[in-house]
Each structure stands twice: as structure tokens, then as C-alpha cells.
Design goal:
Elements lengths: L4 E9 L2 E9 L10 E9 L5 E3 L4 H15 L12 H6 L3 H5 L3 H12 L5 H8 L3 H14 L2 E7 L6 E10 L6 H9 L4 E8 L4 E8 L3 H11 L6 E13 L7 H5 L3 E2 L13 E2 H12 L5 H7 L6 H12 L2 E8 L4 E11 L2 H16 L11 E5 L4 E9 L4 H11 L3 E13 L13 H8 L15
Parallel strand pairs: 10-11
Antiparallel strand pairs: 1-2, 2-3, 3-4, 5-12, 6-8, 6-9, 7-8, 7-16, 9-14, 13-15, 13-16, 14-15
Length: 451
């Protein structure tokens, strides 16, 4: 319930002064308001304010300060720090070396951002109160937000990577941002250093591929000469966050049942499902009853749609996005197949590298795209201070054959974001293939969806 009015008043009870806050709630259907009285502290004989919940040490400090100030003295008291302020003092080493318990929490939230606190507490063998406190601390420490991991193919949209190389005069960073930020099909745009100047990740309507690409290529940055390289891809590992503007494109998928209609069209979405998916994309941990209320849906609609979207595979999961990480830059590593047979003999070395656990609070690969032409894949690798993408490339070259490796560096993200998280690689395709090839043993999977 939102507060509408707050009043603070002082009560004298047997010579002692107590402070209360009176809250008037919003009127109900009959126009009546609920009144709540909350005790917030008292005034001592020395004139000090002792708030509710203070321990004895804090109370004595407040009384001492009141006495000193009454006699003209001045007291400098250290302010208590919020989690946000506390985060400033955390050095890079602490950020990059979370405890085992913190790593487990990050993995749980990455696999199911709507996991109940009771379930998290049970997995960690701690109280619900302790789990709540630890989760909030981690959320602040890593700048965590909750998003919907969506499969665009299930909605009738194809994935493409677009690489642009300018010839001669180049547009400014702001011109590039302005050009692509207003295009709903563009989910990600970054400046790059290497073979190309700009990298785009776009989602294109399966029924309108050519016209939409023509509009993109010939409708943006037309005063600059450039080569455009468009590659059809599939997200093979990781998650690419969807921008809010994409849902304007998705509106055309909303279907209303009409008299005489024969079945539901492919890729159609009920308006209820569209609204819920849009809300979860913006805030994956938003309460279902709030979604119902704000979208004027019947009670229980958001919960029902959530599980239907999961069942259909449109929604893979609610996951997290870690924003506050000491990452120096994002490296791009392109694997171009040159000899399929030779690569097949060493590809498990690559798979092992992808699933290997790290001490960092995020996976060593942010996202991997499967490329169709030329055959191969492109990996986005977060790189911290003291590391470099060239060393990573050299290490892989020593263990993986039949591929040509090329490196690039993302120098600045202009539109959209990448998703850093601590995904449980037991659920990755790479791990499943390693099991089939009898390279690793099957581990027991945690049913994160049941948390």
C-alpha cells in the first residue's frame, strides 16, 4: 500500500517523551482510510533522540552527544554506510573473488531469478532472514537487475550479426548511437577495434527479412561509405538482453480471437501474454499481483502467463544481469572452420574451456553465436585487467585445430547491453555434448525451476 500522508507526533507518558508516526493509507472502496501508528523512538532527559532498535552502545553515544552539544561542544559522528556506499570500498580483488556461498547465490539467481527466498535459504542451509540479507548485498555489490531470457525464434524473429567497416570518413560515436538507437530491430550496438568498426545484434521478422535489412542498411548513416557484412546466427550459449523498443515490433504478434477464426496463427501471442512478457523483460522479479494490477488483468493472469510462456519455450527463464564488474573490455573471438574433420577431433577441448568453472562472479564466455556463413562461431569474452584476448586466442590455438581464429575488441557499447551472469554450465549444450562423447560424467542437476 502506498502511503498518502505521514504525521509525526510526540506523546508524554509519565514524564517521558515518545515519538510516533501516523500513516493514513489510501481510501478503500467505501472511502475509509486505514490508520497505522508506528513507534519510532524517544527523547531522553539529556535531549538525545534514541530511535527504535538502537543497541545500548548507540544509545549511550546519542546521550553523550546531546550533553556535549548542550555545553557548546561539537561532535563528529561517523555516519553509518549503506550497501551502496559500502560497495565503493570494495576493491577489484574482492569483486572478482566471491566466496563459495556468494557464487552459489549468483548461480541460483542466474538460473532462476524468481527463486523463493525460502528455497535459497534451504539450499544454503541458513535462515530466510540471512538469505535475504546476503542476496540484497550481492545485488548491490554487482549491480544486479533481473531480466527475461527470451527465445526470439519462438516469436518468429531471426537473429543476425551485422559488422560494418567504414571507408574514408567515419561517423562520430554519437552519430552511430543516434542512428541505431531508434531502430527497434537493433538490440545491441558496439564500437569495435579490429576487422570492423561497428558490431550489431539484430532481430528480424521471419516474414520480412529483406525489406527490414534494406531499411536498416539504406536508411541509416547514408552519408558515409561502408561495407556491411550480415551474418545469420543462433545464440548457442549465453543470453542477449532484449530492448524495450523490441516490444513495439512484437505488437504485430498480438492475436485476438474472432468469430469464425480457425486456430491460432503461428507465432501469435495473446495480449495477456504480451503484456506479461514485456513486464518481465523490464523487471524479471516483479510481483505477479503488481503486473496484474498495473495492466488491468484479472487476478492470477500474470502467474498463469508466466508458466505458459515457460512451457512454450518463449521464456527460457528469469535471469540476472551483472552491471558493476571490473571488466577492462569485451574481447571478440571468431572461430572460422577451415577443416571440419580436424576440428571434430579437437572440439571437445573447446567445449571443456567453455564449461570450466572460474572463481570470477561471471562465466568466462558471455555469449557464443553459431555462424552459418562462413561456418564457425563467435564468442564474446569478458576480459579483466591483466588479461588480454590475444593470450586467450593463443591458448585455444594450441588445443583446437581445424579453425582460423581472429580477434577483435569491443571499445564501447552504444545501444543495449551484454549479459554477465553465473550460469550453471551443467545445463549448457556444450556439457551435454561432452557427456555424449563420454568426456565428462553426468552430474546431478539442480532443479532450479522448482525453487
Amino acid at each position: 500500500m502506498k502511503r498518502q500522508h505521514d504525521h509525526v507526533y510526540l506523546r508524554n507518558l509519565r514524564g517521558r517523551f515518545y515519538i510516533y508516526r501516523i500513516t493514513l493509507g489510501q481510501p478503500d472502496q467505501k472511502g475509509k482510510r486505514k490508520i497505522k501508528s508506528e513507534y519510532i523512538g524517544r527523547i531522553t532527559e539529556e535531549g538525545a533522540f534514541v530511535r527504535r532498535g538502537m543497541n545500548e552502545g548507540e544509545k549511550k553515544l546519542e546521550i553523550a552527544r546531546a550533553i556535549i552539544e548542550e555545553h557548546g561542544g561539537k561532535v563528529s559522528m561517523p555516519e553509518s554506510r549503506t550497501l551502496e556506499e559500502e560497495k565503493i570500498s570494495i576493491n577489484e580483488s574482492e569483486m572478482l573473488s566471491p566466496s563459495e556461498e556468494e557464487q552459489r547465490i549468483l548461480t541460483i539467481l542466474s538460473m532462476n531469478g524468481r527463486a523463493r527466498m525460502k528455497s535459497i535459504a534451504k539450499m544454503l542451509n541458513i535462515t530466510v532472514q540471512a538469505a535475504t540479507r546476503k542476496v540484497k548485498k550481492i545485488e548491490t555489490k554487482y549491480g544486479i537487475s533481473y531480466i527475461a531470457e527470451i527465445d526470439p525464434v519462438k516469436l518468429g524473429f531471426l537473429e543476425y550479426l551485422v559488422f560494418i567497416k567504414f571507408e574514408g570518413e567515419k561517423p562520430t560515436t554519437q552519430e552511430i548511437r543516434d542512428a541505431f538507437e531508434k531502430v527497434p530491430m537493433v538490440q545491441f550496438c558496439a564500437m569495435a577495434k579490429g576487422n570492423y568498426d561497428v558490431m550489431l545484434y539484430v532481430l528480424v521478422d521471419v516474414n520480412n527479412v529483406d525489406p527490414e535489412f534494406e531499411s536498416l542498411q539504406f536508411g541509416t548513416l547514408t552519408s558515409f561509405t561502408a561495407e556491411w557484412h550480415i551474418k545469420s546466427v543462433t545464440t548457442f550459449y549465453g543470453c542477449m538482453p532484449i530492448r524495450e523498443s523490441f516490444f513495439e515490433l512484437l505488437k504485430k504478434r498480438i492475436w485476438h480471437r474472432e468469430k469464425g477464426s480457425r486456430g491460432i496463427p503461428q507465432y501469435a501471442l495473446f495480449q495477456r501474454d504480451y503484456k506479461v512478457l514485456r513486464e518481465l523483460s523490464a523487471g524479471g522479479n516483479k510481483k505477479f499481483n503488481e503486473i496484474d494490477k498495473e495492466n488491468e488483468l484479472p487476478n492470477g493472469s500474470a502467474r498463469y502467463s508466466y508458466y505458459k510462456l515457460l512451457e512454450k519455450g518463449i521464456l527460457k527463464r528469469i535471469t540476472i544481469k551483472e552491471k558493476d564488474l571490473p571488466i577492462a573490455y569485451e574481447g571478440l573471438l571468431q572461430f572460422k572452420l577451415t577443416n571440419v574433420t580436424t576440428f571434430q577431433n579437437t572440439r571437445n577441448n573447446y567445449r571443456l574451456d567453455v564449461i570450466t568453472s572460474t572463481k570470477e562472479p561471471y562465466n568466462s564466455y558471455s555469449v557464443i553465436f553459431d555462424l552459418l556463413d562462413p561456418a564457425g562461431f563467435l564468442a564474446v569474452i569478458p576480459t579483466i585487467k591483466g588479461q588480454d584476448i590475444e593470450s586467450k586466442s593463443d591458448a585455444l590455438k594450441a588445443n583446437i585445430k581445424g579453425v582460423e581464429l581472429n580477434t577483435m575488441v569491443i571499445t564501447g557499447v552504444l545501444v543495449g547491453e551484454l549479459c554477465h551472469r553465473k550460469f550453471d554450465n551443467v545445463y549448457s549444450v556444450h556439457y551435454e555434448n561432452l557427456i555424449k562423447d563420454k568426456i565428462v560424467e553426468q552430474k546431478e542437476r539442480i532443479r532450479y525451476d522448482k525453487l
